[in-house]
From TrEMBL:
InterPro entries: K_uptake_TrkA (IPR006036), NAD(P)-bd_dom_sf (IPR036291), RCK_C (IPR006037), RCK_C_sf (IPR036721), RCK_N (IPR003148), Trk_Ktr_HKT_K-transport (IPR050721)
RCK N-terminal domain boundaries: 1-123, 232-348
Keyword field: Ion transport, NAD, Potassium, Potassium transport, Transport
Gene: trkA
Pfam families the UniProt entry points to: TrkA_C, TrkA_N
Protein name per UniProt: Trk system potassium uptake protein TrkA
Location of the RCK C-terminal domain: 143-227, 368-453
Length: 458
């Protein structure tokens, strides 16, 4: 695809790298910062244009007249919206994606329609990250929790612990342990290497296990792999920016929430806007403040300031002082591997969370959800099966008869409102939502081809 990316900040540069280097698209990046553009051009096989992203002449120089997609991710909501409007009015760009941060815009749903503000897809990285963290807090033992089929199915990553009922057992015994529910192991990572699950695969302690189950069954499956942590009640959030405020607002009705913000004026604003959250003015890495707030009794500490070094240090300090679980928002992929599984339990990469929602609109075939996993090495996809046995490679076939690429498993199928686990004898029907796990994302094009309907299908 020919794609214009407007904005070369953290989100824009990550998207450009993914779409140009790993997806082999023709990418042009627009930004006002010449130095930043030069740095990206040195690293990536992309074209760059310097200028204001919403100006018609700048979009013209960037090739908007024949671009298939515009991804507007500058730091300004208004610039992103105007750029989409200009692209639609002057160039009839088919797909327009805009990053919108202000909740005031997002809540006005009637605004984003073709006859008003022609933005096809609104992406709010802050909301995506907030939802991601909230799901992790909901399931204390999980490393990742990802939604499919409007939340009816979830893919969960858990580290297997000594003493878990399934640890040391073959996967075929899952049904003996869980007779009243159905779940499927999609992949296992052992010492960082993927293992394709078979019936005789034995789960070992410290394995990272990805399983798929209906939302209501998740907690019970986690209990088979590790000691079930008690539900989180006390949460401290460090950082009162967009993510911190949204997270506090989402949790304060059901949790005891405290939020630390170092800017006095911002802290005052937050205290007025949040109903039940206790807002503390102070430094997120202040040991004395942590002790005063009884950090040793905190179930979850979340470092979500704008400075990843502050998130790392405050999370490490919180863990050292007794916080049961710590999470840190980290932008640089190289930092993620360094800190996770040490003093920090979960490193959260906003870029990896955001990239999935963008990939959903770039995939061939009818793909309704994409999640990038394992720092982009793996991927989970929800694709819709169309056609009939004559026009489709999957419809009318049992899962065991589908020519899936190496390292690809079908974890579950959602048919109407029923969740069906992806066992070998299940036959795919038209309009089924099929949830797949790929341990190697280089096979994504092969999966896309499987779900593309033959040209004779009308």
């Amino acid at each position: 695809m020919k794609i214009l990316i407007l904005g070369a900040g953290q989100v824009g540069s990550t998207v450009a790298q993914h779409l140009a280097r790993e997806e082999a698209n023709e990418v042009t990046v627009v930004d006002i910062d010449a130095e930043r553009l030069q740095e990206m051009q040195d690293r990536l096989d992309i074209r760059t244009v310097r200028g204001m992203a919403s100006y018609p002449d700048v979009l013209a120089r960037a090739g908007a007249d024949d671009a298939e997609m515009i991804v507007a991710v500058t730091d300004s909501d208004e610039t992103n919206m105007v750029a989409c409007q200009v692209a639609y009015t002057l160039y009839h760009t088919p797909t327009k994606i805009a990053r919108i941060r202000a909740t005031e815009y997002i809540q006005a749903e009637a605004l984003f329609v073709q006859e008003a503000m022609p933005v096809d897809v609104v992406i709010s990285p802050e909301k995506l990250v907030m939802d991601y963290i909230r799901r992790l807090i909901q399931y204390p033992g999980a490393l990742q929790v990802l939604d499919f089929a409007d939340g009816r199915v979830r893919l969960v990553a858990v580290r297997a612990y000594y003493g878990g009922p399934l640890v040391g057992n073959e996967l075929r015994n899952i049904r003996d342990h869980l007779p009243n529910l159905d779940a499927r192991v999609a992949a296992i990572y052992r010492r960082g290497e993927p293992i394709i699950p078979e019936g005789d695969t034995v789960i070992e302690a410290d394995d990272e296990v990805f399983f798929i189950a209906a939302r209501e069954d998740i907690r019970q499956v986690i209990s088979e792999l590790r000691k079930l942590d008690r539900p989180a009640r006390r949460v401290i959030i460090a950082g009162g920016g967009n993510i911190g405020e949204r997270l506090a607002a989402a949790l304060e009705e059901t949790h005891n929430v405290k939020l630390i913000e170092r800017d006095k004026d911002r802290a005052r604003q937050l205290s007025e806007r949040l109903d039940k959250t206790i807002v503390l003015h102070g430094d997120a890495a202040d040991e004395e403040l942590f002790r005063d707030e009884n950090i040793e009794h905190v179930d979850v500490f979340c470092g979500v300031t704008n400075a990843e070094e502050a998130n790392i240090l405050s999370s490490m300090l919180a863990k050292h002082l007794g916080a049961k679980k710590t999470m840190a928002l980290i932008n640089r992929p190289s930092y993620v591997d360094l800190v996770q599984s040490g003093a920090i339990d979960i490193a959260i990469s906003p870029q990896q969370i955001t990239i999935g929602s963008l990939l959903t609109h770039i995939r061939r075939g009818d793909v309704v959800a994409v999640h990038s996993l394992r720092r982009g090495a793996a991927e989970a996809i929800e694709a819709v099966a169309h056609g009939d046995p004559d026009t489709s490679e999957v419809v009318g076939k049992a899962i065991e008869d589908i020519a899936l690429p190496p390292g690809t498993t079908i974890g579950a199928i959602v048919r109407d409102k029923d969740v069906i686990m992806g066992h070998r004898d299940i036959v795919i029907e038209p309009e089924d939502h099929v949830i797949l796990f790929l341990v190697d994302r280089k096979y994504v094009p092969a999966v896309e081809r499987l779900f593309q309907v033959d040209v004779t299908f009308i």
